# Entry
Amino acid sequence: AQLRYSVPEDREPGFSVGDLAKDLGVEVRSLATRNLRLVSEGGQRRFQVDLAAGVLLLNSRLDREALCGQSPTCTLHLQLVMENPLQLHRIEVDVLDVNDNAPQFPKPEVVLEITEVANPGTRLPLEVAEDPDMGSNSISTYELSPSKHFALSINVRGDGVKMPEIVLEKALDREKVAVHHLTLTALDGGNPVRSGTAKVTIHVLDANDNPPVCNPPISKVYLEENVPVGTLVTKLNITDLDEGPNGDVEYSFKTSNNAPGKFTKLFSLDPRTGEIRTKAPLDYEESSAYEIAVRARDKGSPAMEGHCHLRVELIDINDNSPEIVLTSLSSPVQEDATPGTVIALIGVKDSDSGDNGQVHLQIAKEFPFKLVSSFKEHFSLVTNGPLDREKASGYNITVRAVDSGSPQRATQKTFYLRIADVNDNAPNFSSPFDTAHVQENSLPGTSVFSVSASDPDEGSNAKLSYSILDNGMQDVPISTYFRIDQDNGTIYTVRALDYEQDKVFQVPVEVKDAGSPALSSTAVVHVFVLDENDNAPTIVYPSVPKGSAFHQTIPALVEPGYLVTKIVAVDADSGHNAWLSYQLQETTEALPFQVERRSGEIRVAQALRESEDPHRLVVEVRDNGTPSLSASVVIVISPEENSVQDFAKSLDLPKSSPKDTNLTLYLIISLVSISLVSCVMFAVVAARCL
# Structure
């Protein structure tokens, strides 16, 4: 918003200028919490804000004449900044003039000379009184003390200044009155009226009775600023009807004590020709016009003089580049900031006038920001789209200011805006499914696998911790088998694993960041237990107690190849560890029997003799593991003459005992487990290929 107040210049400190809270439409109690700040141009603290009452107070007494000089208006510019949300308000305070200065003449006594042959109507210019006040408080009129010969005439100059002149109304006679004493009074228009006086002494002289005359007495010249030094401004046209020395005119600048030589530093005057030229660069921004008073004096005796008034008005050219002022910047800004969020407050000014001072701001279109005009020469930089710190962690924003002059002038300012992270990205595993292998019977604490996840956020939003989830797929919680290092994601065994009990585990792993709210994702690690040869073969048939022998009878006369019996054994291990081989332990005597290495069948190797003694065989069953494990059984074969055993009967196995039934069940479970493991491995391979 933009507020405007006015205050007389003579008010004491603490004077209430305006009710800010009421005019801004905010509650008084919110001013302190919103960190209200008052910024004055130039850095001088002439005002203050009473946060308890919400009013703008005068901090020091103002002097309009010291602040603005002879400017017709006197305005002080303030900026009011409030936060949460960030707002900028512009305040203009007009300093009202008070009639606190009386008119004053440059000299308390003025001495004039006039020839006695001067004709009625002759004019004697007087010094203009100075009054620092403005408007109605400035000089209103002049008064001259009563005189038989002289009267007062007031002319108005082009800039509105009243110029007093003494006019001769009645012919003079120096022999009667050689000196006239008058009093000139300057009155202002204030209430009460203030005045100043000067004594005027007029000496009546003889001779030179024609003063130089300027034609026209008041003129105006237009000149571009920054013209080269030495440029001719004008040549004065002065005429003097006298001849000889009385008509020979010399030119000089007429200055006042209050502004001595202000324009004489910029212009030069040829005393012989009356040419006025520039002698220093002119700047429209410093002053747009100059009032030049020229005195033309002849060389008569007494000398007579005339006065010319020249107003030089400068034409502005585009010689000033715009200026960018970064009033406030909110950096960093959250990446989830909504469109329209105010990022910065930017002010711009150009000392030129008209189109040369009209400034436009621009920023790059590819950025998610735009400029919004708050009020004259003030802009807000707001978000114009979504921000993503993971794509751009910050922006170097260049603001370019271009005026409307010809040729255009431009300037630019670059500032860096940092984007603050928001926890808007969940951590991701490098793979949602992983496969690991671990040897059974490994010691607790054995490293199985390391999962890895990443999070594009930063800081605490990217700090990851790992944990194992119990999914209920096993009868026993998965956490009783495995644990995970929450910092690096390494999975360790909690206890020794048994391949024969569990061949594969599905370990669900969760990774979670430290953001608020926390985000997470999961992955599954398939842990396959590798078999170890830790189970010796078990002889299923014949089933005999430990330390006993199995007795088998056969006919006495049998041919070689006769099937005596068959050894059946199983191994709880798998793969090579479960490959079994059968063999007879070596003895000192040759046995007429042999055992098939793979099938375990015992057959007659050579013909038996009649009434042959029983044979004692030790059959050893050995697996293919490393180291190899084995089991053995003792079989006593007795040939009998009356024993009749056909081939089919020799193959009949005894009825299975409950223990044999359990072993058969173990075999079936092993086969099913191997099949399931194969299916899982095929599924994992297919998933990774996809």
